[in-house]
Amino acid sequence: MNALAEARRILAAAERVVAVTGAGLSAESGIPTFRGPEGLWRQYRPEQLATPEAFTGDPLLVWEWYYWRRERISQCVPNPGHIALAEFEARQGPNGFTVVTQNVDGLHGSAGSRQVLAIHGDIWITRCTCCSYQFRDRKMDGTFVPLCPECEAPLRPGVVWFGEDLPHLVWDGAVRAVNRAQVLLVIGTSSVVYPAAGLTGLAKNQNTRVIEINLVPTPASPLADIVLTGQSGVILPELLKK
Ligand code: BJW
What we know:
Bound molecules: ligand BJW
Shape: elongated
Distance between the termini: 18 Å
Order of helices and strands: HEHHHHHEHEEEEHEHEEH
Structural class: alpha/beta
């Protein structure tokens, strides 16, 4: 049996499945990934901009990156990979499938997925650096650092930067879902950013079957029972079709 057929067989027998997704899933929608040659913005690496220190040092530079990314994302729609996952959720039923996404683009929701845990936040949320004020907006053409209408502190994007805590309830939900799953799909992530990357090891420790989909090998590959090499937008519709 080839790897795809074996993966389909494993999934068909699973009542509870979790997918951990990363930037590679949205790449075929036209959203650049973080790492690799496409992951550059001006002369900066994402690791230099996605930190609280970068924001404190030059908030306008960081906001310019996020305005640029919002604009890029606003032009993108879900690809066949997102859609295959949403259709799979509909077939699995309410507790049968959870997406744990590192992506902040909202494309899982646009595709129709409902059980989505966005562990790195949401690029369309703006929140205060000082008080609890936050709101959802579509601003993408700004040339200044927005200030909080409640306390006048700088506002920031509602995402999780390096060195920051993940939203605890969302993260706890992700761990619970993986603990209950019989199959973990690891899709389009370099598996280098923790704690998300640790979900694969957590699954392995309890004999959950792991299926990885990526263009290249990653640190998760040696833990995977099956590695499917190629574009997620091509593999997922085949893997998850009825
Ligand atoms: C395709 C494809 C196609 C392309 N088809 N595939 C343990 C060990 C070491 C360090 C740490 C540790 N624990 C914590 C740390 C520190 C740090 C960390 O991980 N550092 C490492 C980098 C060394 N982590 C943190 O600081 C985190 N906070 C934390 O741990 O707090 C404590 C805590 C723990 C537990 C609970 C609560 C609190 C925070 C991490 C925040 C990461 N933030 C970012 C920015 C988000 C906002 C934004 O979008 O601007 O998240 S960084 C960036 O990386 C972004 C991504 O979500 C994340 C992961 O990237 P991803 O998705 O994997 O993308 P790429 O580009 O790396 O990979 C794309 C992949 O797709 C590639 O493999 C391609 O081959 C593939 N691909 N096209 C299939 N068509």
